Amino acid sequence: MPLRFICLSFAVAITASLVGQEAVVHVTAADHRAGRGDSVGTYTDIRRKGGEYVLRFSGKVGVREVACADIWGFTVNDVLYRIHPVERVPVRLMAQGAVCYYENGFAHLRMQRTGSELEPSGPGHRSYVGRTLEGDIVPAVFAAGDGGAAGRFRAQHPELELLCACIGADDDLHRTRQCVVDFEAMLEGDDHLRQVMRVDR
């Protein structure tokens, strides 16, 4: 499919408020795919507890805590946060097309709750990419010769080499955003590459 920004722009995505919006937790990817989930109340906070990150929600029955490690993700007002399967931290889906592009979940949860426009930062990396919504998520930092998760992802997906090369080794959020936009725009004019990547118009 063509690139689909979850909000009209990154600026809107950053400042959209979560206040008063009922959060829905998805234990598995299949739950999210089927539109199933557990309504847990309004998001209030995320904190480290017992060595893992725990989401806190406030509802009619009081405060409820949900360990990130126990769920696949959660949505608030159609905004999807996946839980990174290795780091066990939330990452916010920002755009979905030939790749899925995510940003630091801690920062976006904080900014959406407060309405601030601070530069995203928090535990974990500033941005991530994945080939599909339910697939692996890797840091969007692609250094030459990297033998880690990002390096393996790059080697497994040669069709994404232009994107990975554009992003490069610098953890530059603005550059990464532009690389994602430019890569998806390029696909719009390249039917052969779209076919290789199995991306529908």
Describe this structure in words.
The chain is α+β, with helices and mostly antiparallel strands. The protein has one domain (4-197). The protein has helices at 10-15, 29-33, 105-114, 149-156, 161-167, 173-188, 191-197; strands at residues 4-5, 22-26, 38-49, 52-59, 62-67, 73-76, 79-83, 90-96, 100-104, 127-130, 138-139. Strands 1, 2, 3, 4, 5, 6, 7, 8, 9, 10 and 11 form an eleven-stranded antiparallel sheet that branches. Helix 5 (161-167) runs antiparallel to helix 6 (173-188).
- 3D shape: elongated
Largest sheet: 11 strands, antiparallel
What percentage of residues falls in helices of 4 or more residues?
A: 25-40%
Beta strand %? 25-35%
Order of helices and strands: EHEHEEEEEEEHEEHHHH
Number of domains: 1
**Global Rg:** 17 Å
Average predicted confidence as pLDDT: 85
Structural class: alpha+beta
Count the DSSP helices.
7
Number of strands: 11
Query: How far apart, in Å, are the first and last alpha carbons?
Result: 5 Å
- Residue stretches low in confidence (pLDDT < 50, at least 5 long) are 5-9
